[in-house]
From TrEMBL:
Membrane-spanning intervals of the chain: 46-64, 71-90, 102-119
Protein name: DUF4345 domain-containing protein
Source taxon at top rank: Bacteria
Alphabetical list of InterPro entries matching this protein: DUF4345 (IPR025597)
Organism: Pendulispora rubella
Key words of the record: Membrane, Transmembrane, Transmembrane helix
Pfam family, one: DUF4345
Length: 120
């Protein structure tokens, strides 16, 4: 498995996680989500921040631990595919007005999943 591919996807998740912890309101601003209370900011910090860091860390562990690599990589790839699938399902109900951010992240998720599956 190509460690550089795993490191690239790990960097994406770690970056998202750090940004989510540090600036939750700015992270979701492109989606026009307003975080008007402590509970809302806490949720973004948990889901985008904590989860992003955990997934990035898991991929870094997978680089070092070959016995865990395949399972970790496939699990994260399927999580990314699930996110992209959710955007497709949302398309049945919503009509995003522009390519960014919805479809931009759809392609980022597909690319990340592809990199990981190519490494599995």
């Amino acid at each position: 498995m190509d460690s550089a591919r795993l490191a690239l996807v790990a960097a994406f998740f770690l970056g998202m996680g750090i940004f989510g912890l540090a600036a939750p309101t700015r992270l979701v601003a492109p989606f026009r989500i307003e975080l008007d209370g402590a509970e809302a900011r806490t949720e973004v910090r948990a889901v985008y921040g904590g989860f992003g860091i955990a997934i990035g860390a898991l991929l870094l562990v997978a680089i070092m631990r070959t016995d865990l690599r395949r399972g970790a990589v496939v699990a994260v790839a399927f999580a990314l595919l699930g996110m992209a699938f959710g955007r497709l399902v949302a398309r049945l109900f919503e009509r995003p007005s522009a390519f960014y951010p919805t479809w931009f992240y759809f392609w980022v998720e597909l690319a990340g999943a592809g990199l990981l599956l190519a490494s599995a």
